[in-house]
Design brief:
Number of strands: 16
CATH superfamily: Ribonuclease Z/Hydroxyacylglutathione hydrolase-like
CATH topology: Metallo-beta-lactamase, Chain A
Order of helices and strands: EEHHEEHHEEEEHHEEEEEHEEE
Radius of gyration: 18 Å
Strand content: 25-35%
Bound molecules: zinc ion
Number of domains: 1
Shape: globular
Distance between the termini: 6 Å
Number of helices: 7
Largest sheet: 7 strands, mixed
Strand order of the largest sheet: 1-2-3-4-5-8-9
CATH class: Alpha Beta
Structural class: alpha+beta
Helix content: 10-25%
């Protein structure tokens, strides 16, 4: 999609599944299954969506999916596809991993930092995007380096340590990657979780990250049980939705299995609706 001066392509690393109860927090199952079906193991389908923003000089990738460092048992638990597709999608738009100049990490959870590294012949995890600056908010890197018992399951050392040795580029609160593309701290999901605002040629898009991973989360109380600070998620989501409505901004989803981008609309009885946007146009 041409977006002002930028070209935005919506890359995917394929799908996986997480427990529906964990994904919808306090929302009772009879409510969420009306919108989002669960499989026989109560899991719902997610996709790893990674927008690629090309400015002409910079190739900025937002997050890098699940990667390929999974054993049989993990693939079975999370229903991870045998061949994650991010590098294929990158090749489809004519780029190699070495062409990515910036990796903007919303956060470093296992389903967002997977392609940071892959296994070499010696069985060591080595960086994939060898020429990229890896941008991350300070609080997020602090936690990823030393996760506590609750956080440990969602950070993989192999995704973090090899990049840390080369050096993450750390910022506090907000960081303008290039004029018009800014990472901003949301908190909520994790203390240092970030969203990304993209503005060019009078157009605006907001990548919500885990503040609204799929269309279903347009309902304010629909918040993941994974979120460490759910009341922060609530307030940030309220703020971002109002901003996107006011500015007629595109909303970009990190995990929607069917939709990369949508546009908000106030529907009946003040309910928020999301109209699909064709990103191929
Ligand atoms: Zn995620």
């Amino acid at each position: 999609m041409q977006f002002g001066d930028f070209q935005i392509d919506f890359l995917s690393d394929g799908t996986f599944r997480l427990d529906g109860g964990a994904m919808f927090g306090i929302v009772p199952k009879p409510l969420w299954t009306r919108e989002c079906p669960a499989d026989e193991r109560n899991r719902i389908l997610l996709r790893c969506n990674c927008p690629l923003i090309r400015t002409g000089k910079q190739n900025i990738l937002i997050d890098c999916g699940l990667g390929r460092k999974w054993n049989e048992k993990q693939r079975e638990i999370y229903a991870i596809e045998e061949r994650p597709t991010l590098l294929d999608d990158l090749a489809r738009v004519g780029l190699k991993p070495g062409d990515v100049t910036v990796l903007a990490h919303t956060h470093l959870h296992l389903d967002h930092a997977g392609w940071n590294t892959q296994m070499n012949a010696k069985g060591e995890a080595e960086p994939v995007f060898v020429n990229a600056r890896h941008l991350v908010e300070r609080r997020e890197l602090d936690i990823a380096r030393k996760p506590n018992e609750v956080q440990r399951g969602t950070y993989l050392e192999q995704n973090v340590a090899p990049i840390d040795r080369e050096g993450f580029e750390i910022f506090d609160e907000a960081f303008e990657i290039v004029p018009g593309v800014t990472m901003f701290r949301t908190g909520g999901h994790t203390a240092g979780h970030c969203g990304v605002r993209i503005e060019s040629g009078g157009r605006k898009a907001v990548f919500f990250g885990e503040m609204m991973p799929m269309t279903f989360y347009r309902h304010l109380p629909w918040i993941m049980a994974y979120d460490l600070y759910p009341l922060e998620t609530l307030e940030m989501k309220r703020k971002l939705l109002a901003e996107c409505l006011k500015d007629d901004a595109l909303v970009l989803f990190d995990h929607d299995p069917n939709l990369f981008a949508g546009r908000l609309r106030a529907g009946e009885k003040g309910k928020l609706e999301i109209d699909p946007v064709d990103v191929a146009s």
